[in-house]
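Section 5.1 Outputs to date
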Amino acid sequence: MFQGASSLSLDAKGRLSVPTRHRDALSAQAAGQLTITRHPHGCLMVFPRPEWEKFRERIAQLPMSAQGWKRIFMGYAMDVEMDATGRVLVSPELREAAGLTKDAILLGMGNHLELWDKAAYEAQEAAAMQGEMPEAFKDFSF
């Protein structure tokens, strides 16, 4: 399970260094084989390959009425591998889709990670904090 936030910088070639705490899990879980795809909220989802395959199967079974969303998830999906130093190349298409330039945030989201442009995530988080608590949390005890 992935959790926690990490501030990262993409290098000039669009590579990011996966934090050690996630790198070890990704190596053990997927031998460093990952799939990165677009998320409709403006970030990227980074899956260990076995988790992506489960997600892809669920997406593939959606009806024709969801074809547009299938294109977003599957059309942008890129298979990548961590290199020997734990770096991952994020394609230009995916960087553009998420507005990634240099400063980024990597968030652990359970079975996958989210990669956000830092400024975009801070705006998203601020909006969420200003909004009302979702119904699902109304009876949740903190």
